[in-house]
Input
Amino acid sequence: MENKNHNKRFRASGGKHLKKDISRLWKEAAESIEADVVPSAFFCKELLDKCEDYNLYSHRQWAGLWRECCRHVKKCLCFAREGDFTSARKLVVEVNRLTEECHKLYK
Output
C-alpha cells in the first residue's frame, strides 16, 4: 500500500484530458504508420503541439522520460513523412515501450 501512495506523488497534477488526447492521437499515428500511411501535416502538428503542452504537467521525477518519448514521437513522424516506414515502426515500438516503462514506475 505504501508503494501505491508513493507513486501518487509523481502523477501529473492536471492535464488529464490532454493526456487522453495524446494517447488517442498516438494510437492513430501508430496505426497509420503500421499501414504505411503518412499522417497528415496537420495531424502531426496537433500531436506534437499537445506533447509540448503536456510538458507543463510532467513531474520532475519523470519529465526526462517524457521528453525522451516526445523526441521519439517527433522522429517517428519525420521518418513516416519521409517514407521510411521501417524506421518509423521501430520508433513506434520504442515509444510504446517507454510509455509502458514510465507507467510502471510512476503511475
